[in-house]
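Morning run. Coffee first, then this:
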Amino acid sequence: MRYLIAVIDTGTNTAGPNEMHDIDAFNDGLRDRGYWLMAAGIEAPNRSVVIDNRDGADEKSDGPLHRTTEFMSGFWIIDVPDHTTALQVAADGSRACNRKVEVRPFIER
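And here it is:
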């Protein structure tokens, strides 16, 4: 089962050296267990562009869809055997990065 684990923060690239060490160790553990698919940090919402091309509207607006003080600053995509494992991995990821995380399953068809 594939899951997105979104890292929630109020800034981007905010991890200190100790947190980066813990994140790297967490990532290595994901790889060792075969859970790793990918991970990345992403830029702040003020760097985003919302595009709406429904019915050829060709509308673009700078900035996020929703304004908020907390936002997704990075993510992991994992492949684990079950939901319980996904929640445990997410808890370990939250501890490693010292941030809140949101866990969402992919729609599997």
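The helical segments are 17-33, 83-97. Good start to the day.
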